[in-house]
TrEMBL record:
Protein name per its UniProtKB record: Glycosyltransferase involved in cell wall biosynthesis
Domain Glycosyl transferase family as annotated: residue spans: 225-383
InterPro entries on file: Glyco_trans_1, Glyco_trans_4-like_N, Glycosyltransferase_grp1
Organism of this sequence: Flavobacterium branchiophilum
Upper classification of the organism: Bacteria, Pseudomonadati, Bacteroidota, Flavobacteriia, Flavobacteriales
Domain Glycosyltransferase subfamily 4-like N-terminal, chain residue ranges per copy: 33-155
GO molecular function annotation: glycosyltransferase activity
């Protein structure tokens, strides 16, 4: 059985061992961990603020890497003075585990720098890309507007979007080095395939789709709408300027002017979110901030919504869109990054220009005025998503990728 060492920013299924005490956002990686346990000898190194010894749970061995969180480290990161002090730990783990293959999940961390210290084959999975994300960071809100708010409200460098942007810029330099020296790349969209042709021209590219959380395979959206009902719109988003929150507010205001009765639910944001504070004056009663939802809560909210909207200015293959599609919710998505590889326009939903609230509001009206067609889109989206996110195919493909790398 092939021995594989994963490096990840999230703990995968280790959070279950601690009754979810370890917070994480990468639920798909947890699903992949569980899926691959019977197919490979799996070892996972992950970063955490907790001090935990290595442990085995189910069929995976976990190696927590404790990172210290402090104000001084944030300031050092902001000024690009923070040194990467964990490479020695990564190297020791590699020597101890002696894997056949090292799999780095994401380019947004320093994990990929281990190429300098090992001759073990390394494959890097593309999740997003900081070089492109920083380029699109202020697509929704201008630097001036963000600066004015945070200089007025808080210390200008820490815990605000300018800090996040500067930190991403610093990390993108590390990412560029990692990609430049990556021999093997795993991706899943035309977007990540083509950007790596530029950023990692010597790479061998493998396609491997993502497994979703288990509950999304087991549930199906089935909702009708008539003209006397309130339209329920759902978006799962994040606290960043490039996620398109301003487009939601602008489209919502256009719908209000037309006396449309609707509620727009946003998972992932609450009253304390930075983006909510910046545009708070524009948030009306028709916007319902749900905060962070667990898997079942998210599924139930999606199943009780008539339309799903993905408004980001840049994404690769957003899990939120994939999850809505596999349930069969009628979807509208900004045509950005890799979304054109995920949703086929006018077949599985509708793709629109990012940052265009008129097109977004108009497409919502199109769905409402012909809800039967919207349901057809949703059914086709579910068929496509069930094929794309087929667990057996994903696990077999990943095993083949590992075997090809080992045998090369």
């Amino acid at each position: 059985m092939t021995k594989v060492l994963w490096f990840s920013n999230t703990p995968a299924n280790a959070d279950e061992y601690f009754n979810n005490e370890i917070k994480q956002t990468g639920g798909w990686l947890k699903s992949l961990d569980l899926l691959m346990q019977d197919h490979i000898d799996l070892h996972i190194a992950f970063k955490t603020h907790l001090s935990i010894s290595p442990f085995e749970y189910k069929k995976t061995t976990y190696y927590p890497i404790t990172i210290k969180k402090s104000l001084s480290k944030k300031i050092l990161n902001f000024f690009n003075l923070q040194k990467y002090n964990y490479l020695d730990q990564y190297q020791k783990l590699i020597m101890e585990i002696n894997p056949d293959v090292i799999h780095i999940h994401g380019t947004e961390s320093d994990f990929g720098l281990i190429y300098k210290y090992t001759d073990k084959p390394i494959v890097v999975s593309i999740q997003g890309n900081l070089t492109v994300y920083t380029h699109k960071f202020f697509s929704g809100l201008s630097k001036n507007k963000i600066n004015k708010y945070f200089i007025r409200k808080s210390f200008p460098f820490i815990d605000n979007f300018m800090f996040t942007f500067r930190n991403m810029k610093n990390e993108s330099k590390i990412e560029s080095e990692i990609l430049k020296n990556s021999k093997y790349i795993i991706g899943r969209t035309d977007w990540d395939k083509n950007i790596t042709k530029v950023l990692s021209p010597q790479n061998t590219y493998f396609h491997n789709d993502e497994v979703l959380r288990d509950g999304f395979y087991k549930n199906v959206w089935d909702l009708d709408w008539d003209k006397n009902q309130k339209i329920i719109i759902h978006t799962t988003t994040g606290d960043s300027p490039y996620k398109g929150f301003e487009t939601i507010l602008q489209a919502a205001n256009l719908l209000l002017k037309l006396n449309i009765d609707f509620e727009w639910r946003l998972a992932g944001l609450n009253e304390k979110s930075l983006i909510t504070k910046v545009v708070k004056s524009n948030v009306g009663n028709y916007i319902k901030l749900l905060g962070n939802l667990n898997e079942n809560e998210l599924i139930q909210n999606l199943k009780s919504s008539h339309i799903y909207v993905m408004p980001s200015h840049i994404e690769n293959s957003p899990n939120s869109l994939c999850e809505a599609m596999i349930l069969g919710v009628p979807c509208i998505s900004a045509h950005v990054g890799g979304t054109g590889s995920i949703l086929k326009n006018k077949k599985e939903g509708v793709l629109i220009q990012d940052g265009d609230p008129w097109m977004l509001a108009g497409t919502i009206l199109e769905f409402v005025q012909n809800f039967e067609q919207a349901k057809v889109y949703g059914k086709q989206a579910r068929k496509t998503a069930l094929i794309r996110h087929n667990k057996e195919k994903i696990s077999n493909d990943l095993k083949l990728i590992y075997n090809k790398i080992v045998n090369e």
